[in-house]
Automatic annotation (TrEMBL), chain A:
One of the GO biological process terms: siderophore-iron import into cell
Alphabetical keyword list: Cell membrane, Membrane, Transmembrane, Transmembrane helix, Transport
Pfam families found in the cross-reference section: FecCD
Location in or out of the cell: Cell membrane
Membrane topology: Multi-pass membrane protein
Listed name of the protein: Ferrichrome ABC transporter permease
InterPro entries: ABC_BtuC-like, ABC_transptr_permease_BtuC
Gene3D superfamilies noted in UniProt: ABC transporter involved in vitamin B12 uptake, BtuC
GO molecular function terms attached to this record: transmembrane transporter activity
Primary localisation category: membrane
UniProt similarity note: Belongs to the binding-protein-dependent transport system permease family. FecCD subfamily.
Gene label: fecD
UniProtKB/TrEMBL annotation, chain B:
Species for this entry: Paenibacillus azoreducens
Membrane protein topology class: Multi-pass membrane protein
Family: Belongs to the binding-protein-dependent transport system permease family. FecCD subfamily.
Residue spans crossing the bilayer: 65-82, 94-116, 122-146, 158-178, 247-273, 285-306, 318-335
The protein's name in its UniProt record: Iron ABC transporter permease
InterPro entries the record matches: ABC_BtuC-like, ABC_transptr_permease_BtuC
GO terms for biological process, alphabetical: siderophore-iron import into cell
GO cellular component: plasma membrane
Any Pfam family matching the protein: FecCD
Keywords for the protein's UniProt record, in alphabetical order: Cell membrane, Membrane, Transmembrane, Transmembrane helix, Transport
Position of the signal peptide: none
Amino acid sequence: MRLKRTLPVTILAMAPAAIVLLILASILYGAKNITAGEVWNSITAFNPDNVDHQIIMSSRLPRAVGAMMIGAFLAVSGALMQGMTRNYLASPSIMGVSDGSVFAVTLCMIFLPNANPNLYIVSSLIGSALGAAIVFGLAWCIPQGLSPVRLAILGSIVGTFLSGVAHALSTYFQVSQNISFWYNARLHQMNPELIRLSIPFAIVGLTLAVVISKSISALSLGEEIATGLGIRTWLTRALAILAVVLLTGVSVALAGKIAFVGLIIPHIARFFTGSDYRWVIPVSGVLGGIFLAMCDIVARFINYPFETPVGVVTALIGVPFFLYLIKTRGGAGA
Amino acid sequence: MKHASLRRFWVVAAFGLLLAATAAYLSLTNGTFDMSVMDVIQTLLRIHPQAEHDLVVFEFRLPRIVLGALVGFSLGVAGAIIQGVTRNGLADPGILGINAGAGLAVVLFMFLFQGAVTATGWLGVMLMPMFGVAGGLLATAAIYMFAREQGKLDPQRLILVGIAIASGFGALTMYISLKMNPNDYEMAVVWLAGSLHNANWKFVATMLPWLLLLPLICIRSHVLDLFQLSEESQKSVGMPVEREKNIFLLCSIGLVSASVAVSGSIAFIGLIAPHLARQLVGLRHIRIIPVSGLVGMIMVLTGDFIGKTVFAPAELSVGIVVSIIGVPYFVYLLIRSRG
């Protein structure tokens, strides 16, 4: 028991150092190499006429911070979903949440072309809620709908449907170029303004996740045990879905669809911490942020000096992991 | 009794052909360039031929319709086979990742031979389906490798592995397509969404050899009926189960990959057509297979017609139209099914 605590505590204690180092690395490496001294200068004595300073402040830093945040949000969402449904494949990208968000943003671009960025975040949130509502609603209606196979199929089918409709609409209203620009958003187009706007939503989502983490642990043992422990399962589920919607919605608004982070990271986190979600959730957050930031750096060098979408990197790492999970766990429950 | 079900099959088949013909007729007469019915008939029967009408009918609309019909038929048949072999009503070439594998290979082909072999030249047109088949085989091999446990193919695991493989191949396809030059990229993107937009007679010609598989499939279709029995009964009938399974899978991979090579990945046909066919003509595969093909044909022709006219002047690819229509039906299937 003693040992089980030390590992997650060590991870959390070392996290700030790792995060600072990764952000620094993320700023230093790229199409234009920047020296560490320049980075220090740009923070202590920012000079708007210096090109390097401009690059650091308006592009590299938002990108590094954005990757961290998105990775953390997706991983926490994944952890919540996996704990809540007891389904080891549950994750934002498989569950149609991201596609719902894409759908809503498409609508927003069509009908409110001159909207301010704030509205994109809001519509992304509404869309995530819609996607989650459809997938979970159907899963509850369908016999054994929450089993890994059925949920995975439902999620991918509903996702196909929502992105198909979005595509049809964007073709019809001839905004598909804007959409595809946004869809395949790469982290290098990170908008500092959007990051600032997303912070309040993210704080609410993360706080919720931490607050309900104990109840999620109970839920992950099964409905009956949770009820026996005096958990209000209905309330816990509702709050967990709310947190997932907030965190995923914000992530998609920031960088489009990035798959597999929410699937893999919670498994790795549980490997380190065991099944107590009071530890799984924060450790997932930290590992998710670090993971995506590293993938982002890798993505810059795969096809140097051209950028590769970070989703390609996460998929190349995620698919073998996904296959490994299926191989070891099969089609049955958690 | 047997007689009645046979009659039912012929009624369904005749009605299906009629529907397909109607869809083909609608596509032939409607479009951005309006032609009257008489114009079309006169052009087809070579009465007072006009160069303009000839061009529209023979170079644009007719190949598109014929290709759509062939692709739809192949996808429907392939879906019926895959569902029969795996005994799983949710199996479909798209969900299993066969489309994605074929797609990756074809995009790779476009990328490697850009300029050297134009995709519409004869060599390219003939090579592309071969690449597609190689990709489809690769995907199937990968799925087999991961979905088998102790020599058995677990249908649940098959689908999960398929989803994984499909997203992996999808990511690779995206990576390769981003490295293409802008022209090829545009082509790849349009094509990946599943479109009949580029249909021409050469594509039709590439599809034809693969259709030779159809009689082979029909002759052996009674074996698919045996697959529906339990494993023990199959063994007691004395059937080399694994070998038959492999033959059928190879046939369907061939059909799917050839379709993907000429029209991109059109999802849901292989999933839905066999279900409709089973409802229409019962459980014997000798009847399910042709009817499933017909249903697929009708779906593609109608989907393409809708995509072409409803969204005019923009054009929506048939793949997207079919998936928008297909999803609600699929959800209905899931709700009805048990466990």
